[in-house]
Amino acid sequence: MEQTTQQPRDGRALPPSVLALAAATFCVVTTEMLPVGLLTSLGEGLRTSDGTTGLTLTLPGVVAALSAPLLPVAVRRADRRTVLCALLVLLAAANLLSALAPAFGVLLVARALVGVCIGGVWAVAAGLAVRLVRQESAGRATAVIFSGIAVASVLGVPAGTLMGGVVGWRWAFAAMTLLALAVAALLAVLLPPLPAGEAVRLREVFGLVRTPAVRTGLLVVALLVTGHFAAYTYVRPALERVPGLGSGPVSGVLLVYGVAGIAGNFLGGAAAARDPRRSLLALSAVLSAAVLLSVPAGGSLPAAVALLVVWGLAYGGVSVSAQNWLMAAAPGRQEAGSALFAGVFNAAIALGALLGGRAADRFEVAGALWLGGALAALALGAVMAAGRDPRTARTKGTPPRLPAE
């Protein structure tokens, strides 16, 4: 099937459809992470403990990990514009149900629906850049689409937290309902028709794992994301122990970290478009060093802040660089590769928080940081062991190149 492409008029500016996809990723990630800043008020309002309320974060990640590889199979030949619009409408419904939830069980049902939307939007949207722009602009377009994730952490979640503190947590979810509907309308207006190519089958999705370069990419994603969340989950208590940096200024430092993450997203995207292997090598090395050095640097305020900024820059480039790796490793199978990527990524988020908690319980906060840095170092070893750029590491058993779906 012929590839649907929107050509920017000046050859440099990206079409509005790419920005609409960035808005979609911003919306789903903000919704996913919203309970981070509302945990206390959610527990008080629904009379649940902090540990139980934490399921509102764990459940969407688990459901997203399962739905990401399954949803492209379920929708098969449906137009991808229609699929994305439907997912954003479902997200709006889930947020409305969250806002009106009379009991914690109802809220969990709503959060499970959020997980379906997260997995679906990631699986479909992540691989669409090659269909919307010229080949030479695909890397930049992919970076813009993934920038919605970083911006959600810097702006979306704090804004939702502020609203929850001022008018109550239910109104924060109500606001996300309106935002999801607005983004659904944007997608309907700005995206061109995106008919599916060959129907995605489950065996095709999991069959990609037989490709060495795909397998390496997924392993690196699992190690980096698990390591990051094992350490980052406990970065606030780690910073609060730094001399001269109390609980108040920590929020400002974390905001700087988020801004660095946005910059890292675009820098990593530019580097990965040229050479995804070299980009992941650099990111893995820098991330590992920054996290590991954060432990001994905890006694120095300038060193701790500088390392956190470097951490943000490095992790900000992980998503877009890994996506570029997988697109290069499985040409013509962007959606199947994106589905695997989203599934592994979301599973790693949940696993990282779990392992980080165990390490912190046994070895205090430093244990979570040591674990995170060690996993990033293992990711560096995995990329080095791959030995070749994914564009040249395809094997005889790799699915043949097909027209972009």
UniProtKB/TrEMBL annotation:
Pfam families: MFS_1 (PF07690)
One annotated Gene Ontology cellular component of this protein: plasma membrane
Subcellular location: Cell membrane
Keyword list, A-Z: Cell membrane, Membrane, Transmembrane, Transmembrane helix
Major facilitator superfamily (MFS) profile domain mapped to chain residues: 17-391
Transmembrane segments: 12-34, 54-75, 82-104, 110-130, 142-163, 169-191, 212-234, 254-273, 280-297, 303-326, 338-356, 368-387
Keyword Coiled coil: no
Keyword Transmembrane helix among record annotations: yes
GO MF terms, alphabetically ordered: transmembrane transporter activity
Chief localization: membrane
Organism: Streptomyces scopuliridis RB72
Membrane topology, from the record: Multi-pass membrane protein
Identification of the protein by name: Transporter
Domain of life per record: Bacteria
Gene3D superfamilies, alphabetized: MFS general substrate transporter like domains
